[in-house]
């Protein structure tokens, strides 16, 4: 698996607006050196369309990690959206459905989907407002539905949030929906593992969870965010990466991207991470997987 030349990490955002301060990109080279932030084309931040264009034209053989969910829970109910006749059969069908319903939303936003009369029933929209299908009958937890990969993440000591949850700072629902719109529009420009088979050559996109990378970087405790250069370089050292320059504070979007780029370089050759025991062909084509979950 050491065929990759570049390791790109994208800390994504599902927020409204043309440009996002919450999007950060960093790249680590296979030949070594510290990971490096990729500056946005505009000082106001990245546009999601600019990230999409970059992913459609990756240099060399790039392993690109996106910090967003590439699918929704399916295995627990045999469907993304039980009791909805429009519920797709696989992840690419899901991406297409979301993009079609959000056709009038600018900037790859996903407001049209979470406000759709049927789709809205499956999401938690506020502290005291959730759709009547957010929880399955007899649900063991009030946290919502989880994918198989997210169950594996929990066994690793991190706490993913359901992609059907749109509430709180840790929610990833909006990020995932906007990301799935982007993936649909990328089409076949770059394979998305494991929804697509892992090719022998060329670039590949995978889902990442920055907290998993931070754990390998020695970050412990309930919080996995790093906000100082000193802590960042301690984590990079644990990932066998040279330090980045700078001192003082750093925003956690940038630190997440830098750590995860170094982490991808450090672990990508592990065969086990490409063959986790719970990753069946059915899970791969419907829910996808988080690289690093095992």
The amount of helix comes to 25-40%
Strand order of the largest sheet: 3-2-1-4-7
Gross morphology is globular
| Distance separating the two termini | 17 Å
pLDDT < 50 stretches: none
Radius of gyration: 18 Å
User: How would you characterize the largest beta sheet?
Assistant: 5 strands, mixed
The number of domains? 2
Protein name: DUF429 domain-containing protein
Organism: Erythrobacter sanguineus
How do the helices and strands line up, and which of them pair or pack?
Layout: E1 6-11, E2 24-29, E3 36-38, H1 48-55, E4 62-67, H2 91-101, H3 111-114, E5 124-126, E6 129-130, H4 148-155, H5 173-186, E7 204-207, H6 210-216, H7 229-238, H8 252-267, H9 271-274, H10 281-286
Parallel strand pairs: 1-4, 4-7
Antiparallel strand pairs: 1-2, 2-3, 5-6
Q: What features would you describe in this structure?
A:
This is DUF429 domain-containing protein. It comes from Erythrobacter sanguineus. A hairpin with a 6-residue loop joins β2 and β3 (36-38). The protein has two domains: 6-70 and 190-274; 91-184, no CATH class. It has 294 residues and is α/β, with parallel strands linked by helices. Helix content is 30%, strand content 10%. The protein is globular and about 50 Å long.
What attributes characterize this protein structure?
single chain, 294 residues, alpha/beta, 2 domains, two-stranded antiparallel ribbon, 10 helices, 30% helix, 10% strand
């Amino acid at each position: 698996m050491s065929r990759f030349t570049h390791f790109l990490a994208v800390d994504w955002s599902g927020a409204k607006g043309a440009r996002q301060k919450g999007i950060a990109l960093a790249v680590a080279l296979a030949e070594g050196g510290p990971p490096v932030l990729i500056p946005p084309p505009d000082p106001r931040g990245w546009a999601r369309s600019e990230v999409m264009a970059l992913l459609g034209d990756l240099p060399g053989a790039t392993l690109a990690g996106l910090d967003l969910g590439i699918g929704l829970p399916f295995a627990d109910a045999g469907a993304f959206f039980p009791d909805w006749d429009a519920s797709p059969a696989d992840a690419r069908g899901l991406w297409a459905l979301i993009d079609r319903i959000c056709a009038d939303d600018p900037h790859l936003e996903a407001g049209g989907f979470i406000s759709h009369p049927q789709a809205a029933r499956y999401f938690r929209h506020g502290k005291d407002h959730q759709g009547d299908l957010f929880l399955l009958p007899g649900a063991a937890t009030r946290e919502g539905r989880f994918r198989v990969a997210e169950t594996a993440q929990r066994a690793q000591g991190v706490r993913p949030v359901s992609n059907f949850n749109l509430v709180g700072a840790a929610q990833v629902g909006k990020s995932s929906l906007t990301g799935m719109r982007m993936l649909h529009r990328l089409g076949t420009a770059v394979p998305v593992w494991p929804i697509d088979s892992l090719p022998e050559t060329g670039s590949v996109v995978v889902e990442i969870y920055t907290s998993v990378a931070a754990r390998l970087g020695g970050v412990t405790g309930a919080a996995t965010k790093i906000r100082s250069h000193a802590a960042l370089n301690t984590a990079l050292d644990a990932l066998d990466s040279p330090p980045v320059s700078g001192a003082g504070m750093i925003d956690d979007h940038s630190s997440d991207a830098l750590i995860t780029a170094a982490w991808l370089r450090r672990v990508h050759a592990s065969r086990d991470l490409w063959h986790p025991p719970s990753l069946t062909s059915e899970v791969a084509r419907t829910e996808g997987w988080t690289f690093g979950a095992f």
